[in-house]
């Protein structure tokens, strides 16, 4: 047997900690008990500038040394730690270990683990149990989303290293002969990795308030208790990417969740969230029975009641409110947790039968600007490319623009990065901070928050001026491009003009424009960094125009790729069953509903069903809380108690993922993943579908919201896939392969999947023959008379004129909202049947409120966004393991700025905006723009482990894109104070 | 079966701390109660009852060394640890009861020493496990570079160790070997030389300097103080048994003794 080892590639590792999750899951390790850990490394804090050492990751586990210091330090005889002569694997005999900790002290790699509850050493043995059961690889290597970890005979790994001309990190200063191979960065060849130059941020892995008592089966249990007797395939239910997974059971008990290596696309890759989601199903914190409020709202006092009592009482109150205020006085809000079947099916059906237009999801916070922009330009709200090596993998240039894919969708980034490294493609990241994605890029451009549209306009100006556009494509397939060209040139959106708004040098803009124009296949990835601004729709359109004029549309390896969670579901409800809705939708964004609740304007909204956590999620928490407290009826449906449930009149316990049967949202790759119901929900918790069907029965909706549709698979087949794009995605087809996904559109069960949509010579799915794109013209549409008419309702032009956000450190043209939410506004021309606000572009010469704010000390730009990979919104905060990885709310701040403010790494600070204040821990990070700070979303003050106020206490509900009602969450002024 | 008791670590942690911090006061309390309840004469440290308790207590404290020694002689380590803790706790209580709670007399220094040992033991058992587990990934000296001269020095040390090992235990592998009690008994000079080289290597690697001093030296101090206690108890026994006159210092010698020298 040869010497075995792990090989870890620093170029690929994104610090997602999926390997940590896999290791704990494989070995049933509890809190603080580790065999491995991904160490996040920044630059030394005294180095102020943004540099190549801002962010790296060291996946650390036992090095299986030839001269192991731990073995020599062990005082037990015979030694409790031993080394296999053949494989070189160093193992600990946990029964013989006396827990003296000498091995922990001795190991210079800090790679010796310890079980604080069992009081003995623990360590990586390269998954000897797993290998003995026939596995050919370790748990960590099997799941790694980026293929950064490889396991095998050391000699073979060394040969690969040599064959690929990769340099290794020197990890043997003390002549211990470590087996583990670390491959150094490629993109930073000039400086060799040396941990002495690095600093580990204090906010990570600080082990807050987690005890062994927080764990339940399978953690801490022996291997025989976890012996797998059956495996079922499905998908992860946490975020909107639904990575394919395998659910491993011992009889009826869920033992672990892994990736699905049979999936040809993901090949077993999976992020930590999917694995940790096992803790959702077995959590002691789950809501298990309907609760009714007793005492005052917000006191969080409830009594358990039966489902019948709960639904009867809720129905009675709803009737009473309807009688007084009309059916439109009911608001329905749902989000990711609720699931696609409910968001797109059950609730939507209920709202149409009941008669309220006021049903919204989280889109106005995430993606409504992008959806509208796609619909306007392409005729369908989502990109047409796919995650395959011959499509997206073939791009010569990947430009991540306001998209931190490595942290938010690590598995898909892993695929792109893998293809990119194989092909030698370039990667550019445009982001105000050096995100994990940016840390992997060939070039990071730290743009000013809100400067994206100016930069994109300048690139287009440059491309047109230099005639670098794809004229053949433009002439054949773009409607209004010449008008657009004239507009751009006339407006003078030159690189020189854009440089001050984007805070990027003119030469950099030239270079970027040249790279994009000359790349044989460029994918521009846009995401929340583009969407969450007051110019959301127009910024997205400009980036789409950029992709289109360079011919990067309807081709493999070329696209504007802003992920889309939308599924083209058409609900079939008989006309005579639809309720009469007399009033328009209040606002597209639910934050626009607060005036309707508090002041009854434009009309009263008195009751709400919320299916996630608006008391953390909605911008402007002060106003949100006032509003929700003023409701006559607040029903909260969720899986964990949170801020919102504490204020609810009724709390209904929901089921999730494999407890109910669900469809995975195909946001990244048009792949629809089916998740079978595999286990029962805890206590008397029920699937959302069951709740809406049962509530519907109280109002006589059972002939439409049918009893048999409690079976989610039946509901999918019978109610949701009548659209030509989904007609072939039947249960039969979804279950015909071992990974249970189908890439839509497919109109029949037999129709083959399409890798790249809108290719030249093809007809768009569902469009009349010959129409390449699903617009009326069959072309990409930059300008039409109809668009112009619609935009004029807002006081804007169809051809995007530059404006930024209201709050910024420089005077830039920005949008000021004209209509207050209590006014009727206009009937939104884009948002179907809803009232919309109007805005006006304010000249940069007009002194705005920014000057005053800056004078008051609000001199930092606040960016909010997703935290690292182990967290997603609020629900991972109920998992002890996500919490162990990322316990505290943090604010990333540049060391130079922090020093001026007297803020130290890890210190508690106060962050104030003009809209509210919160506390967080400081993370001194040289990858941050010195004038910006970043605070992640997801934390809440009633979470079980670390209680922090939501970042939305700092955000402002009035700063919305009038066209899509998308809220600005990326550019707000704030100040930071040490405490 | 769950490997570890699924009780709250925090609660257990608190309970153990309370338990440890109460041992000495409880023992002092017991000795006070004994003093008031027992007839005059019996409550004195040298009374037959108290002397008997002292003997049992001392034996138990000696047994605590079993835990240290057993793991060096191939006995199951964890049983030794359990015996170590139980005998230390009971032995401490008995010895304090024997002392009558007196800590200001000369033998009282042994009680103070015992108290420090107990504290360090508690720290090792209760606080340190969490520290050990939190050490994972916090020291990255293995990923730093070392000066060539230091590496040369290290190479020389390893080579010297290999030479010594050829005499000390010819079949052993330097990279996996560490000294055991048998080496100190069989070849003390070689063992001492080997240990010196080990110390030199440890100094270069960082070893105890790579963690907080409390984590690095807690166990060492516990061991040193324990050996000091053993010596102190031995001296105390010899003094009261053979130098009774010296101990009595003019008072009547009421305890069992062999000689009244001094």
Describe this structure in words.
- Chain A is α/β, with parallel strands linked by helices and 979 residues long.
- Chain A folds into four domains: 4-225, Alpha-Beta Plaits; 291-363 and 568-665 and 673-723, 3-Layer(aba) Sandwich (Rossmann fold); 383-563, 3-Layer(aba) Sandwich (Dimethylsulfoxide Reductase, domain 2); 852-978, Beta Barrel (Barwin-like endoglucanases).
- Chain A is built from 33 helices and 40 strands.
- The radius of gyration of chain A is 28 Å and the shape is globular.
- By secondary structure, chain B is mainly α.
- Chain B folds into two domains: 9-132 and 212-248, no CATH class; 146-210.
- Chain B is 69% helix and 0% strand.
- Chain B has nine helices and no strands.
- In chain B, helix 1 (9-37) packs antiparallel against helix 4 (108-134) and helix 4 packs antiparallel against helix 8.
- Chain B is elongated, with a radius of gyration of 23 Å.
- The chains are: A alpha/beta (979), B mainly alpha (262).
């Amino acid at each position: 047997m040869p010497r075995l080892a792990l090989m870890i590639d620093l170029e690929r590792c994104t610090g997602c900690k999926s390997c940590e999750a896999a290791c704990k899951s494989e070995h049933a390790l509890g809190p603080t008990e580790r065999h491995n850990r991904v160490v996040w490394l920044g630059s030394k804090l005294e180095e102020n500038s943004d540099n190549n050492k801002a962010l790296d990751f060291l996946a650390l586990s036992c090095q299986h040394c030839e001269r192991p210091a731990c073995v020599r330090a062990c005082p037990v005889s015979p030694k409790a730690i031993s080394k296999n002569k053949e494989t070189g694997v160093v193992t600990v005999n946990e029964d013989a270990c006396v827990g003296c900790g000498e091995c922990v002290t001795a190991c210079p790699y800090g790679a010796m683990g310890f079980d604080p509850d069992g009081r003995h050493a623990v360590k990586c043995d390269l998954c000897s149990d797993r290998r003995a059961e026939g596995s050919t690889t370790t748990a960590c290597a099997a799941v790694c989303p980026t293929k950064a970890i490889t396991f095998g005979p050391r000699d073979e790994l060394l040969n690969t290293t040599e064959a690929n001309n990769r340099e290794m990190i020197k990890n043997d200063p003390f002549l211990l002969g470590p087996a583990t191979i670390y491959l150094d960065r490629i993109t930073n060849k000039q400086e060799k990795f040396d941990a002495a130059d690095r600093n580990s941020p204090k906010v990570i892995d600080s082990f807050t308030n987690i005890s062994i008592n927080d764990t339940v089966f399978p953690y801490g249990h022996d291997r025989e208790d976890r012996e797998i007797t059956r495996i079922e395939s499905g998908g992860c239910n946490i975020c909107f990417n639904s990575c394919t997974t395998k659910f491993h059971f011992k009889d009826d008990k869920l033992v672990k969740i892994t990736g699905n290596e049979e999936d040809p696309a993901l090949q077993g890759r999976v992020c930590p969230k999917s694995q940790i989601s096992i803790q959702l199903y077995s959590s002691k914190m789950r809501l298990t029975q309907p609760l009714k409020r007793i005492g005052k709202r917000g006191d969080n006092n409830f009594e358990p009641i039966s489902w019948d009592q709960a639904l009867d009482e809720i129905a009675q109150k709803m009737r009473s409110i309807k009688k007084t205020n009309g059916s439109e006085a009911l608001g329905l809000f749902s989000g990711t947790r609720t699931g696609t079947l409910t968001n797109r099916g059950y609730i939507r059906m209920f709202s149409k039968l009941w008669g309220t237009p006021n049903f919204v999801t989280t889109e106005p916070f995430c993606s409504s600007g992008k959806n509208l922009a796609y619909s306007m330009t392409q005729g369908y709200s989502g990109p047409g490319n796919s995650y395959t090596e011959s499509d997206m993998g073939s791009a010569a240039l990947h430009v991540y623009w306001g998209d931190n894919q490595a942290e938010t969708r690590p598995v898909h980034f892993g695929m792109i990065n893998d293809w990119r490294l194989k092909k030698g493609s370039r990667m550019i990241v445009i982001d105000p901070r050096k995100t994990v994605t940016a840390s992997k890029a060939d070039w990071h451009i730290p743009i000013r928050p809100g400067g994206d549209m100016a930069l994109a306009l300048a690139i287009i100006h440059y491309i047109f001026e230099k005639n670098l556009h794809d004229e053949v494509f433009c002439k054949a397939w773009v409607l209004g491009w010449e008008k657009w060209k004239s507009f751009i040139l006339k407006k003078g959106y030159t690189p020189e003009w854009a440089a001050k708004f984007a805070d990027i040098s003119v030469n950099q803009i030239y270079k970027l424009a040249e790279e994009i124009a000359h790349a044989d296949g460029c994918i521009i990835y846009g995401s929340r960094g583009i969407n969450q601004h007051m110019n959301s729709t127009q910024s997205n359109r400009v980036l789409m125009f950029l992709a289109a004029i360079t011919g990067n549309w309807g081709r493999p390896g070329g696209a504007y790729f802003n992920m889309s969670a939308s599924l083209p579901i058409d609900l079939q409800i008989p006309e005579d069953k639809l309720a009469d809705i007399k009033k328009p939708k209040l606002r597209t964004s639910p934050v626009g509903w607060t005036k309707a609740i508090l002041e009854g304007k434009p009309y009263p909204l008195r009751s709400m069903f919320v299916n996630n956590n608006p008391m953390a999620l909605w911008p402007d928490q002060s106003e949100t809380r006032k509003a929700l407290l003023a409701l006559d009826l607040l029903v909260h449906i969720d899986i964990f108690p949170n801020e919102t449930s504490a204020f609810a009149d009724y709390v209904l316990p929901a089921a999730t993922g494999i407890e109910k049967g669900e469809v995975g949202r195909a946001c990244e790759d048009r792949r629809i993943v089916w998740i079978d119901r595999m286990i029962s929900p805890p206590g008397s918790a029920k699937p959302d579908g069951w709740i809406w069907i049962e509530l519907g029965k109280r109002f006589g909706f059972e002939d439409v919201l049918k009893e048999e549709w409690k079976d989610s698979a039946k509901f999918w087949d019978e109610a949701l896939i009548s659209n030509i794009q989904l007609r072939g995605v039947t249960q039969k087809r979804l279950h015909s392969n071992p990974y249970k996904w189908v890439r839509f559109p497919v109109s029949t069960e037999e129709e083959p999947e399409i890798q790249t949509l809108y290719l030249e010579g093809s007809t768009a799915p569902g469009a009349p023959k010959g129409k390449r794109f699903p617009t009326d013209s069959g072309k990409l549409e930059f300008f039409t008379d109809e668009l112009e008419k619609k935009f004029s309702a807002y006081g804007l032009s169809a051809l995007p004129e530059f404006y930024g956000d209201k709050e910024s450190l420089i005077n830039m043209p920005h949008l000021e909202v004209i209509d207050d939410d209590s006014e009727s506004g206009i009937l939104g021309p884009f948002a179907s049947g809803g009232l919309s606000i109007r805005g006006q572009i304010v000249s940069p010469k007009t002194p705005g409120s920014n000057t005053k704010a800056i004078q008051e000390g609000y001199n930092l730009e606040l960016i909010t966004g997703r935290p690292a990979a182990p967290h997603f919104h609020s629900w991972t905060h109920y998992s002890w393991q996500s919490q162990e990885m990322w316990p505290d709310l943090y604010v990333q701040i540049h060391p130079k700025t922090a020093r001026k403010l007297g803020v130290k790494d890890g210190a508690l600070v106060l962050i104030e905006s003009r809209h509210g204040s919160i506390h967080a821990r400081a993370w001194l990070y040289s990858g941050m723009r010195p004038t910006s700070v970043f605070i992640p979303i997801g934390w809440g003050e009633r979470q079980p482990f670390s209680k922090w106020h939501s970042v939305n206490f700092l955000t402002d509900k009035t700063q919305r894109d009038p066209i899509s009602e998308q809220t600005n969450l990326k550019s707000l002024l704030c100040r930071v104070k040490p405490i | 079966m769950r490997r570890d008791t699924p009780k709250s670590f925090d609660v257990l942690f608190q309970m153990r701390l309370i338990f440890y911090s109460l041992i000495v006061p409880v023992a002092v309390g017991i000795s006070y109660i004994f003093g008031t309840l027992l007839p005059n004469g019996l409550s004195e440290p040298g009374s037959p009852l108290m002397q008997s308790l002292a003997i049992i207590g001392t034996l138990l404290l000696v047994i605590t060394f079993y835990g240290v020694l057993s793991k060096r002689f191939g006995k199951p380590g964890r049983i030794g640890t359990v015996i170590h803790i139980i005998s230390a706790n009971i032995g401490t209580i008995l010895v304090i009861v024997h002392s009558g709670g007196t800590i200001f007399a000369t033998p009282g220094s042994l009680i103070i020493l015992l108290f420090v040992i107990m504290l360090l033991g508690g720290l090792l058992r209760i606080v340190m496990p969490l520290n050990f587990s939190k050490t994972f990934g916090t020291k990255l000296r293995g990923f730093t570079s070392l000066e060539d001269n230091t590496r040369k020095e290290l190479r020389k040390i390893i080579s010297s160790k290999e030479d010594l090992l050829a005499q000390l235990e010819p079949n052993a592998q330097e990279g996996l070997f560490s000294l055991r009690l048998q080496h100190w008994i069989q070849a003390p000079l070689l063992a001492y030389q080997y240990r010196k080289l080990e110390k030199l290597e440890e100094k270069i690697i960082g070893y105890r300097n790579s963690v907080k001093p409390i984590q690095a030296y807690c166990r060492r101090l516990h061991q040193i103080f324990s050996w000091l206690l053993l010596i102190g108890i031995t001296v105390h026994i010899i003094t009261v048994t053979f130098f009774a006159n010296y101990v009595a210092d003019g008072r009547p010698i009421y305890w069992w003794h062999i000689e009244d020298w001094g």
